[in-house]
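Researcher: Please translate sequence to structure tokens.
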Amino acid sequence: MTCAPDCRRQFERKLVRETVSVSWLDRQGAQKFYSTYSFDVSTRGLSVHVAEPIPIESYVALRSAKLKLIGRAVVRNSVRRNSGYRIGVEFVEETPVAAGCKDGKF
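Model: Translation complete:
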């Protein structure tokens, strides 16, 4: 499944639910870590569910064996959802996910 035709996103997203490890430094400098899952993935980023908010513009480290993903990203969006937060991140370096895609498609 992809984004609706009227979607304003520049890159196609696919609904993908896979395990993703997310780590970052909180405002006090303590390292945080979650093993969570993705909602959707594009060649430029993805969204994940976490239990606590991660500040916008924070850098996170991502890892997912099934997505063949390892790299850094910056938080662009954070929305409260039921039992946590849905965080949208943009890759800041080329990842294997992005390198394996052609013309912005999987």
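Researcher: Any highlights?
Model: Residues 14-99 form a domain with the Thrombin, subunit H fold (CATH 2.40.10.220).
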